[in-house]
Amino acid sequence: MGLIHKTAIIENGAKIGKNVAIGPYAIICNKVTIGDGTTIGSHTLIDGKTTIGKNNKIFSHAVLGTIPQDLKFDGEKTELIVCNNNTIREHTLINTGTAGGGYKTVIGNDNLLMGHVHIGHDCILGNGIVVANSSIMAGHVEVDDYAVIGGISGVHQFCKIGSFAMLGGGSVVVQDIPPFCLCEGNRATLRGLNLNGLRRNFENRKDIGAIKKAYKSIFESGQPISDMANEILINDDNKYAQQLAKFVVNTKRGIPFTRK
Known about the structure:
260 residues; alpha/beta; UDP N-Acetylglucosamine Acyltransferase, domain 1; 2 domains; 9-stranded parallel β-sheet; 17% helix; 27% strand
């Protein structure tokens, strides 16, 4: 059975699962649901309509589910959803959604959010993502599975970061970062493929070869990137090459690359 410290404040209406541990002076507000096996550190605040899944580790002084830092917010009913097996380190701040962004902020499964991270309103994070210390995301940011965000980085609102992308530390992102790519700088630009990440995660080297070929065709051919991406969608049946090409075709904020 979980241990709930005697100084913790759990408001009437909060739903606490089995084997949940809650540390000293933590505050769990009345619309919160916490799943089985989750641990919550001291002085943590979980507010708003927040649903925490199973087996999450939330460290001290984290603040989850507070209202958005958005001047357009007018008290509408919004929520934060944190799925399963996430680690959320000290002083991390995650806000609920807004009416303009679908009413919810969502954190998927198996993510590591290091200390002092801020996830703004209406952000959607997938699974297996690492966000290093003191990185921040403005509202409406999307991060796909297994991306890595280097420390002290900032991501502009409405940007999208693709799966298995790697963002170098201290970067400022103002455009979309394609899947499988390495990006860094202020303003962040493509530096090539995240080859170390691909080699760690892809057993089939033919898939890595297909991604390399697609990257060169799109970004190093000297042709319009949308034309080359559409050509890959027609002629290349590798699912990862297709994924990269679709991202380029569908980008709304553009891709930060230097034409060679």
